[in-house]
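Let's sit down with a protein and look at its sequence and fold side by side. Please make up or recall a protein chain and show it to me in full. Label the sequence line and the structure token line clearly, so we can match residues to local backbone shapes. Go ahead whenever you are ready, and we will take it from there.
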Amino acid sequence: MENAQFLAMIQAYTGIGIGLMIGLGAAGACIGVGVMCGRFLEGAARQPEMIPTLQGKVFLLLGLTDASFIIAVGLAMLFAFGNPLLAVIQ
């Protein structure tokens, strides 16, 4: 194969990988946030005196869940704009 074909193949597979990273990461984060907020509301409805304790833990876990998606977006941007796989061709 020529270098141009390798370059096109790497860019195509990188584009597919970027789409999967962002799409599945966003879906996972949304599902996780939805489940966690639902469980928080159930716990708050059962024991209202535990709301301050539960609220702090929920906010911490929501931040960690969103941080994992933001890290995936950062990695996707690395591969989109500064693809280290293209150095193999040159």
Observations:
- The chain has a mean pLDDT of 92.
